[in-house]
Fold this protein.
Amino acid sequence: MPEEPKALLIRPIRDGTVIDHITHGEALTVLRILGITGTTGEKLSIATNVDTRIAGTGGLKDIVKVSNRELSKEEVDRIALIAPNATINIIRNYLVVEKIGVEIPRYLRGVIRCTNPGCISNANEPIESAFGVSPNGLRCHYCDTVISSDYAQHII
Amino acid sequence: MYHIISIKDFERAEIDELLDKAQAIDQDPGPFTSLNGRQVALLFFEPSTRTRMSFASAVARLGGSSICVDSVEGSSISKGETLADTVRVVSSYVDVIVLRHPKEGAARLAAEFASVPVINAGDGAGQHPSQTLLDLYTIRQSMPLEGIDVGLLGDLRYGRTTHSLAYALSNYDLTIHTIAPETLEMPTSLKDELLDRGCEVVEHDDITDVINDLDVLYATRIQRERFPDAASYYNVAESYRITPELLENRKEQMIVLHPLPRASEIDPRVDALPCAKYFEQARNGVPVRMAMLEEVI
């Protein structure tokens, strides 16, 4: 029986950002949070449900590679809620020049929709949703509603 | 610029200072001139009688004038204008905006877009800081806010006045007793917040267990629409009704408050008792709102 050919799942990128160790199944949500839709021009490589030996992951992870764009820490921290173990690698000329973890920011703007239908942030107003982040969850800046679970369901 | 949006934005010292200012105004025969030549917009996008009238009275007593919007119909909101645009435009006409709006967080948004101070006069099921301040003021007229037992009675799940008041009371060293029917108890998130702030909270479902230990009984309306049928509503409403008989063995300094309007939760015979302070409480809306207006200008 022929041996399975050894090949890279996705090619290395020359310049850009690699987001590794994304919670498996969340790669597309991560792209949505980062505002990368496929029509925004970046060259993307996405791998989902890739094997990993890191404990506590269920043996799977997702990876996203964005060519020719270096994402800032502030941009990438927005994904921390749904991919708390992600790491960000900035690549220049095929080399990792910077490697950083993600941190949940103290304030989240425009990422999560308030679950309170009576909240002004869900009305037709020229504002972004805004949440303070605390150990108890996310508190809406406008109506004080607290969201403490299922963050991915409320991603805008 | 200073806005008054939520009682949660206030430190205890700031609350005390505002109440002191209201007391000074209350004791001063006037005339007051701090709003002379100034205009206040009363933007009421939701029905209100006493809050709107007492703000209008407060503005007039301070020598100012007010411009009212009384409902959504006939206003720019009905033409699809955002609240953000409304307050930006109204800011250019007046010196202060007083806003009541059906959406929670509306006043916070308004403060972000207004170029004049904004006072929240109630935003949906959210905050109503002027009510809370006048509640505290009324208690303080009868007794210090320290070391007392305050009972909150009625719909503690949906009632915004009790939520704001409970939060404000947690600034002081006192005990809060919640007395609510099943399904209308105080939300766990609020109770946890009060406990985190070091407040003692004791839960009851029977008013007779605690009535003789209270220094303040704060009653609120139990709304018919919270119950599946008329019979269960009347059963609950009857067991939470405040009567002279219930108050027979009350503490001497005990007072009964209610944000009004009341339905049947306080027997009219209670009105004649010295502990009935709810009309005094409504009257206090004027000096407290005068103090709030003076605070923001």
User: Anything to note?
Assistant: The two ends of chain B are 9 Å apart (CA to CA).
